[in-house]
User: Fold this.
Amino acid sequence: MDEEKDQDNFRTYTGRSTLQRPLYLIYILLAVSYLLIVIGFAVTLSKATTLSSQLSETYNKIKNNPSGHDLHLFPCGSDTRQWEYFNGKCYYFSLQAVPWQQAKTKCEEQHAKLAVIDGFPKQNFIQTRTRNERFWIGLHDLHTEGEWKWLDGSDYRTGFKYWKQGEPNDYQRRDEDCGQVWINGEWNDYTCNSNSFYVCERPMPSTPLTSKGK
Ligand SMILES: [Ca+2]
Ligand SMILES: [Ca+2]
Assistant:
């Protein structure tokens, strides 16, 4: 009898043990899994928050300085790619020939002025892009015959000059009161109501724009 009782107790003991151990392990595994999920979620949430804050910061930078992010690619602004950069300024070479006064107005409408040529570097830059065509520049003697003036107020008398030989000449006594770069780049005075292409000039977008020429 005692032997049978001991065997029953043993079965009961081993039976309870084989049932309880796996359940205990499952609870631990579930707890660990839950913990890992919570940690993973927290890490993902933290990364998403950081990314969102970085995106927001980048958006604000672009919003406050629209052309800043690709200023190195398009110094004159990504939305104005027809403007060419040279030595700290932006230049527009027109595709349309108009009278001088109209050219002046068209430049002013783009917060620019007709180009003022103050030395050989700018002269070379402009004449390589105007070759074989006439382009108005910001030079005139409209007020007093023979008294040439630059639109930006630069001193003409002491400044750089690049007139073609024999110019300015008021050719055949016509009123040639507006300055242009001739087909070889040298300067010529010409009748202001004639049609010519024109060169506008303005500061880079990152610097304050002058709204009107003088
Ligand atoms: Ca003249
Ligand atoms: Ca002339």
